[in-house]
């Protein structure tokens, strides 16, 4: 067989300059080649000759494409093919390093004149910040070389080829290359020149590279700065009065850099005729006694995994979007990012330095698709690939090494094990011993400084926290992080609070990174946002690509709101005798940046508010603060305090007044249960029974109206449209509840009417609720009473037979007129909550449009439940119904049935009907995280058991 073409050989490329520290370049010295480029797509790598690279080539017949951008997301109606989503599997036959003949190939052309005033010294480099999956490059007809490594920067020396006018830059990009085998990350396959293309002027003798070493000694409060550079130069830091030679070290008093106090010092490196801006953050990363410390303090990652994603532009993000990500993270108490699973656009790391986020910077490397093949042929275990792996390691470290936010290097993700990884780790350690090395896939931890896992159960984390885990002794001495946990797919994740408790209990458990930051739903002409399979892919992994804390349009999901509360860096909890306990959980800063307030609530209504004096506690300290005397309030009201910690001043990421943390402290016992509503006599006539405000069908005992409102289909309700976490991942054990529920028929329960009994003061309906083909059931009795004004329903449920699965939910559902469009309630809100996702729900009086109660998960599923509801009013204008619970209940109101919700594949499939379906739940099963991780914790299971609950309905007329 002939030698392989360049895009299939194992080499990382030819003709590129050695990797070096990235910086933007001054305006005068950097010329962006972003914009409209000529574009031609061919179906195979060799369908067209390379003659297009010749300067006189006539490209007038070509179309235009925007750079940066992915071609599959441009053009009209799939003109340029489409995106494809796979998780683990390669979307082509696995025969490394060969790729399929069908190899979409994008030829790109850009003509440009040099800007006026561009130095004529013939010194310049051309930089590509990201091209998927490889590129061969020509300038003015001369071939510069080629490269692989999609999310890595590559540069070529081009000064000698540049002309003042009419330069022609030509690029041939193949979707598939040998590099694709190293880039099997769980995401869309999106070819193209998706990051910036820049021409940089580099004067003769300018540095090849520079490395800022800025450590901090917490025992003396001093920082030591040394900037290494391959050409001699000077370093100035005016704020510190520093002017020193490159290679020289100086120690001075400084403020350290941390994610909480991201103190940066501006400096300049002048070397070889270039002035290079420096942004210096002093900090020292170390492992001491099995604990990761920065500047002498243990840090706790409250992290997320971030893929670069935009619903229209894929992985091509503009600065505003990157900034939005960082600001949203900071506003949600997130302090760390793992750049899963490749180095991000360098500007993102600048933002992390500026705003303050700890970063695990990950190499562009994943070979997960070999797992299904028993790891046969895995590139990380085949030395022929080692140069390509080392190239990736070097391009990661060299590009990003001057960012103080980067505290950990990660070799890559899900590659199994092999000598190639060891070689990468060795190279990184040698080049930069100032940071830790991470890789999750090797349980021996031979090459890593952290023990890292994804999706372990709480029990396992507990064991690891106690250093009681099995495995190599050396590993037990390492700090522990969850590089991924809490799979945020659809509704959920559940169980976050319990993980956080473990992180706050065990010194060794240094937090984790929720999987993942944003849903990768791509804008779709029919479905709103599409996921795997929606773009005609041959193989795909469905909606597994939608597992983020943000919706694709960056609206926070309830999961993010929950995470914010769970990881809040200040804990506000009840203290003894009218007091509150405040604990500062920050890693570094005191509480001086926060202002505390109290408010006093009676039956959910705020009666008074005021400031609360909290001393500026040091990190790790806690205190008791006395609350004021309770304001006057009705004697029988349920009362409580809400104490909030707000930003005292504007910050770069949120204005003053932004809420960082809160807690509620009960002041009195909960309000007494609603009145029993008994006494009225049911009256039977003409096939109807009238009881207080309600009318029933005398034969079935079903309510037909409450006051003026027609009611339909009131019955026991156990079904919910399974969440992604109910469904579980295919590789999970077979106790996944979604599939079991369906198998057992919980989605099609039959309601047998056994008896309708009319007594003096009540109407009783006895039923047996059970699925076809099964012999287990729920004996269900509805007992209706009234005091003439209110109608009380008490439901008694007694399980019969052997229930092998928990119930999805237990409550009643009923249909009401669609006109009811407003909800006002007193309960936990304002957002949705489930038994194990309810940390962020606080007691109060809330109000929302009915349509705003739902959460539009990309794949429709159970959503929108409001828990701990004392009472709810659903109204339209002046009419409506009030529901009170005994005990409190959870409610969900939506314009389609559970069955319709369950049947929908996309949010756009859901069409409002003429009934408002109201679910009044006594309980729901927890959510868990089984779409990838562990299921529902035992305490949140809703096992079938005898239960009674009551609901009181009162017509509302104002
Ligand atoms: C992990 C993987 C991630 C993602 C996640 C599930 O195994 O590292 O890339 O696939 O599972 O969404």
UniProtKB/TrEMBL annotation:
MF terms (GO), sorted A to Z: beta-galactosidase activity; carbohydrate binding
SUPFAM superfamilies assigned to the protein according to its UniProt record, in alphabetical order: (Trans)glycosidases, beta-Galactosidase/glucuronidase domain, Galactose mutarotase-like, Galactose-binding domain-like
Enzyme class, first EC level, given as a word: hydrolase
All copies of domain Beta galactosidase small chain/, residue ranges: 690-954
This protein's GO CC annotations: beta-galactosidase complex
InterPro entries referenced in this protein's UniProt entry, alphabetically: B-gal_small/dom_5, Bact_Beta-galactosidase, Beta-gal/glucu_dom_sf, Gal_mutarotase_sf_dom, Galactose-bd-like_sf, GH, GH-type_carb-bd, Glyco_hydro_2
Highest taxon in the source lineage: Bacteria
Signal peptide, first to last residue: none
Annotated keywords: Glycosidase, Hydrolase
Any one GO biological process: lactose catabolic process
EC number: 3.2.1.23
Catalyses which reaction(s): Hydrolysis of terminal non-reducing beta-D-galactose residues in beta-D-galactosides
Family, per entry: Belongs to the glycosyl hydrolase 2 family.
PANTHER family: BETA-GALACTOSIDASE
Designated name of the protein: Beta-galactosidase
Lineage: Bacteria, Bacillati, Actinomycetota, Actinomycetes, Kitasatosporales
């Amino acid at each position: 067989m002939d030698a392989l073409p360049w895009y299939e050989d194992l080499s990382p490329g030819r003709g590129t300059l050695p990797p070096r520290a990235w910086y933007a370049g001054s305006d005068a010295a950097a010329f962006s080649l972003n914009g409209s480029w000529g574009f031609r797509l061919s179906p195979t790598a060799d369908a067209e000759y390379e003659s297009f690279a010749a300067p006189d080539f006539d490209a007038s017949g070509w179309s235009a494409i925007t750079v940066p951008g992915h071609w599959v997301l441009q053009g009209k109606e799939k003109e340029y093919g489409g995106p494809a989503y796979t998780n683990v599997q390669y979307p082509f036959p696995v025969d490394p390093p060969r790729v399929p003949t069908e190899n979409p190939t994008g030829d790109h052309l850009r003509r440009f004149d040099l800007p006026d005033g561009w130095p004529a010294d013939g010194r310049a480099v051309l930089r590509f910040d990201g091209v998927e999956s490889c590129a061969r490059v020509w300038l003015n007809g001369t071939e510069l070389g080629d490269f692989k490594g999609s999310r890595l920067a590559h540069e070529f020396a081009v000064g000698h080829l540049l002309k003042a006018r009419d330069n022609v830059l030509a690029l041939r990009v193949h979707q598939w290359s040998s590099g694709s085998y190293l880039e099997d990350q769980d995401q869309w396959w999106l070819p193209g020149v998706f990051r910036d293309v820049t021409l940089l002027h580099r004067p003769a003798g300018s540095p090849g590279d520079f490395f800022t070493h800025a450590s901090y000694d917490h025992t003396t409060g001093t920082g030591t700065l040394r900037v290494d550079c391959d050409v001699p130069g000077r370093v100035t830091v005016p704020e510190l009065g520093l002017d020193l030679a490159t290679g020289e070290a100086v120690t001075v008093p400084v403020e350290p850099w941390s994610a909480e106090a991201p103190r940066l010092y501006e400096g300049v490196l002048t070397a070889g005729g270039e002035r290079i801006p420096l942004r210096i953050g002093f900090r020292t990363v170390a492992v001491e006694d099995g604990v990761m410390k920065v500047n002498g303090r243990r840090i706790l990652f409250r992290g997320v995994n971030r893929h670069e994603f935009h619903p229209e532009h894929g992985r091509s993000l503009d600065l505003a979007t990157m900034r939005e990500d960082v600001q949203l993270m900071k506003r949600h108490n997130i302090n760390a990012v793992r750049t899963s699973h490749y180095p991000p656009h360098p500007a993102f790391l600048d933002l992390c330095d500026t705003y303050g986020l700890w970063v695990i910077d990950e190499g562009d490397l994943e070979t997960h698709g070999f797992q299904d093949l028993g790891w046969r042929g895995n590139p990380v275990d085949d030395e022929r690939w080692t140069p390509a792996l080392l190239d990736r390691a070097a391009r990661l470290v060299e590009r990003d090494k001057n960012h103080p936010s980067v505290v950990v290097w990660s070799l890559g993700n899900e590659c199994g094990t092999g000598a190639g990884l060891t070689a990468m780790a060795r190279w990184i350690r040698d080049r930069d011993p100032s940071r830790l090395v991470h890789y999750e896939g090797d349980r021996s931890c031979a090459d890593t400084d952290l023990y890292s896992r994804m999706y372990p159960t709480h029990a396992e984390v507990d064991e690891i926290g106690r250093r009681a885990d099995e495995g190599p002794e050396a590993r037990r001495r390492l700090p522990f992080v969850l590089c991924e946990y809490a799979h945020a797919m659809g509704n959920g994740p559940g169980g976050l609070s319990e993980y956080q408790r473990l992180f706050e209990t065990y010194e060794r458990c240094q937090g984790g990174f929720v999987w993942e930051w944003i849903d990768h739903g791509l804008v779709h002409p029919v479905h709103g946002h599409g996921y795997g399979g929606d773009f005609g892919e041959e193989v795909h992994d469905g909606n597994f690509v939608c597992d983020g804390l943000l919706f694709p349009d960056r609206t926070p999901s309830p999961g993010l709101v929950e995470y914010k509360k769970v990881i809040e860096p200040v804990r506000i909890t009840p203290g003894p005798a009218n007091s509150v306990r405040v604990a500062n959980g920050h890693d570094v800063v005191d509480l001086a940046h926060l202002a505390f307030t109290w408010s006093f609530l009676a039956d959910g209504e705020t009666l008074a508010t005021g400031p609360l004096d909290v001393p500026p506690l040091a990190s790790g300290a806690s205190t008791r603060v006395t609350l004021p005397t309770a304001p006057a309030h009705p004697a029988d009201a349920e009362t409580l305090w809400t104490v909030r910690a707000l930003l005292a001043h504007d910050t770069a990421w949120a204005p003053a007044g932004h809420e960082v943390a809160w807690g509620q402290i009960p002041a009195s016992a909960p309000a007494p249960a609603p009145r029993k509503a008994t006494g009225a006599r049911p009256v039977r006539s003409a096939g109807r029974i009238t009881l207080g405000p309600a009318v029933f069908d005398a034969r079935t005992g079903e309510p037909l109206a409450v006051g003026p409102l027609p009611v339909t289909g009131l019955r026991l309700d156990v079904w919910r449209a399974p969440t992604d976490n109910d469904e579980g991942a295919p590789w999970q054990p077979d106790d996944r509840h979604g599939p079991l529920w369906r198998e057992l028929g919980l989605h099609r329960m039959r309601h047998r009417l056994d008896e309708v009994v009319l007594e003096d003061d009540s109407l009783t309906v006895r039923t047996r609720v059970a699925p076809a083909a099964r012999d287990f059931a729920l004996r269900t009795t509805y007992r209706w009473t009234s005091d003439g004004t209110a109608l009380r329903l008490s439901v008694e449920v007694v399980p019969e037979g052997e229930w092998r699965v928990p119930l999805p939910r237990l409550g009643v559902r009923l249909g009401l007129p669609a006109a009811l469009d407003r909800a006002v309630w007193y309960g936990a809100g304002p957002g949705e909550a489930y038994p194990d996702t309810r940390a962020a729900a606080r007691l109060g009086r809330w109000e929302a449009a009915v349509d705003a109660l739902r959460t539009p998960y990309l794949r429709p599923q159970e959503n929108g439940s409001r828990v701990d509801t004392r009472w709810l009013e659903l109204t339209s204008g002046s009419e409506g119904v009030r529901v009170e619970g005994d005990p409190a209940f959870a409610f969900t109101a939506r314009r389609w049935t559970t069955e319709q919700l369950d049947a929908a594949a996309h949010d756009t499939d859901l069409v409002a009907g003429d009934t408002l379906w109201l679910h009044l739940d006594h309980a729901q099963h927890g959510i868990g995280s089984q779409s990838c991780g562990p299921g529902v914790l035992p305490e949140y299971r809703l096992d079938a058991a005898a239960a009674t609950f009551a609901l009181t309905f009162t017509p509302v007329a104002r």
